[in-house]
Specification:
Layout (H helix, E strand, L loop, with lengths): L1 H16 E4 L3 E7 L2 E6 L2 E4 L5 E7 L3 E11 L5 E12 L2 H6 L4 H17 L4 H6 L1 H16 L4 E12 L2 H70 L4 H15 L12 H8 L13
Antiparallel strand pairs: 1-4, 2-3, 2-5, 6-7, 7-8
Helix pairs in contact: 3-5
Length: about 280
């Protein structure tokens, strides 16, 4: 019977005197309710019923910032939530400087987030998420420093406006997209019209060039005729005039009556005033 009680006492002494601290933890040891030391990972021996140890997780921890309705600078209610990542770097301060740090951190993050977003409009909040994350992180890190806690990062998850505001924003975005599409179509049409106009200009320039070349050719022909007339018909302007008249008549498809038993060549010669005195030769 005494042996049974002796074994029970030994088991209880070992249970209260031997503690194991894991590598992801640190321990805070108290002796009769007073801080004694910070225990590192490994086996720790305590005085039973005199000393007590509190284990603190020192790894990075994630806590949610509960969804809350925040009034923005432009008087709109936005539904906002997020997450905070932090770790304990001083277990002693985490126990003695704040009551239950695990709930104090998300509560402080919630109020800080409300203060930061409340200074912005809804549009600014959505456009400056990184800025909000950084600002909230800096404020939390400074305020939790006395608690032996360092804030690693803060991330916003949602910034949602009321349903009617969201619908209006969607309509604005849709209108902007339609405006951009209309501008693109107008630009395409303008480009096409400009291409057609340039083609017409090129066509007109080609036609004008053809006219100029034709005019130059006619001018050269006239010049050649004048030079020939000056050379071969000098002093006989009347004869030249008759030749020109015959040329115009033939060019304009004028009808010429040819008498019977006459040659066309001699008729044309007669029209020209006998310039072409061609004698008809009988066959044989």
């Amino acid at each position: 019977m005494y042996l049974y009680y002796a074994v029970l006492v030994v088991v209880l002494v070992l249970y209260y005197s031997v503690k194991i601290i894991r590598p992801v933890e640190k321990g805070v040891v108290e002796t009769l309710g007073k801080f004694t030391k910070t225990a590192e990972a490994g086996i720790q021996f305590l005085i039973p019923f005199v000393q007590r140890i509190y284990k603190i997780n020192i790894t990075e921890q994630r806590v949610d910032i509960e969804p809350q309705s925040i009034i923005t600078k432009d008087k709109l209610n936005a539904e906002v939530d997020g997450v905070v990542y932090y770790k304990v770097v001083d277990p002693k301060n985490a126990i003695y400087n704040v009551n239950h740090f695990a709930s104090a951190v998300p509560s402080l993050a919630k109020t800080t987030l409300r203060a930061v977003i409340g200074k912005m409009t809804l549009t600014e909040s959505n456009e400056n998420r990184d800025k909000i994350n950084t600002e909230v992180e800096n404020i939390l890190d400074k305020q939790t420093d006395p608690w032996g806690i360092t804030v690693i990062r803060v991330e916003l998850q949602r910034i949602e406006p009321p349903a009617d505001v969201q619908s209006a924003m969607n309509n604005v975005v849709k209108a902007e997209n339609e405006k951009i599409a209309a501008l693109d179509i107008a630009t395409a049409k303008e480009t096409t019209a400009d291409g057609d106009r340039r083609a017409e200009i090129k066509k007109a320039e080609g036609h004008a060039q053809a006219i100029r070349l034709s005019a130059n050719a006619e001018a050269d022909a006239i010049k050649a005729v004048n030079e020939s007339a000056e050379k071969y018909f000098k002093g006989n302007a009347q004869l030249l005039k008759r030749l020109e008249t015959v040329a115009v008549a033939l060019k304009n498809n004028s009808k010429i009556v040819v008498p019977a038993n006459s040659d066309l060549v001699n008729v044309i010669g007669d029209m020209a005033g006998g310039v072409l005195p061609i004698v008809r030769r009988d066959p044989g």
